[in-house]
Prior knowledge:
Layout: H1 11-21, H2 26-38, H3 43-52, H4 54-67
Amino acid sequence: xxxxxxxxxxxxxxxxxxxxxxxxxxxxxxxxxxxxxxxxxxxxxxxxxxxxxxxxxxxxxxxxxxxxxxxxxxxx
Length: 76
């Protein structure tokens, strides 16, 4: 369900939105920018989905194992 919202922005921001984003895309643009700041993602579920992806986990393990040798060359 969508709700209409009236906001006030600086004139330069208004003109920039129209020229860069386009008149019919402003609501979607603002929604995509604001969403991560006001809706808290379910990180536990997201991490569980990532862990269930066996090929991703295998690739991550291979990557981490391949980079472990780089640490010995690090200076403190």
